[in-house]
């Protein structure tokens, strides 16, 4: 988690990392499988996976001679909790603003 309390959301700001994240949400994949589905090289996929892994959103496991990557449930849970918290704060602020707009004015 960084200094701003973002548990990985900033990592998904890059469109390629977001595409990798979305592919891994569908199914675990190797670097080669991801590279076949994206318009970037295997080394570039590996670099993006390293960033996602360092950020806690992706984990890997050995499968023969290759590594298979998948979403890290703990990282996704933290990301979802963060988004839920932000959304709840926004709804609370909206409710307060709506209540203030409908409060009867004193004469």
Residue share in helices?
Answer: 55-70%
Widest sheet, order of strands:
1-3-2
Helical segment count: 4
Rounded to an integer in angstroms, the radius of gyration calculated over CA atoms is: 20 Å
Low-confidence stretches: none
Strand content: 5-15%
* Overall spatial form: elongated
Number of strands: 3
* SSE pattern, N- to C-terminal: HEHHEEH
Secondary-structure-derived class: alpha+beta
Mean pLDDT, to the nearest integer, reads 90
What's the end-to-end separation, in Å? 51 Å
Q: Characterize the largest beta sheet: strand count, sense, and whether it forms a barrel.
A: 3 strands, antiparallel
Give the SSE map.
Layout: H1 15-26, E1 29-30, H2 31-37, H3 42-54, E2 58-63, E3 66-71, H4 73-102
Antiparallel strand pairs: 1-3, 2-3
Helix pairs in contact: 1-3, 2-3
Tell me about this structure:
The chain has four helices and three strands; from the N terminus they run H-E-H-H-E-E-H. The chain is α+β, with helices and mostly antiparallel strands. Strand 2 and strand 3 form a beta hairpin. Helix 1 (15-26) packs across helix 3. It is elongated and about 75 Å long. The N and C termini lie far apart (51 Å). 18% of the residues are buried.
Summarize the structure.
The chain has 107 residues and is α+β, with helices and mostly antiparallel strands.
Give me some keywords for this one.
single chain, 107 residues, alpha+beta, three-stranded antiparallel β-sheet, 3 strands, elongated
């Amino acid at each position: 988690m960084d200094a701003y309390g973002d548990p990985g959301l900033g990592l998904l700001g890059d469109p390629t990392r977001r595409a990798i994240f979305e592919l891994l949400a569908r199914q675990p994949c190797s670097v080669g499988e991801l590279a076949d589905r994206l318009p970037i090289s295997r080394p570039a996929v590996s670099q993006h996976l390293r960033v996602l892994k360092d950020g806690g959103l992706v984990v890997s496991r050995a499968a023969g001679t290759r590594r298979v990557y998948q979403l890290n449930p703990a990282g996704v849970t933290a990301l979802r909790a963060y988004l839920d918290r932000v959304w709840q704060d926004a709804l609370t602020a909206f409710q307060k603003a709506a209540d203030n707009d409908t409060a009867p004015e004193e004469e």
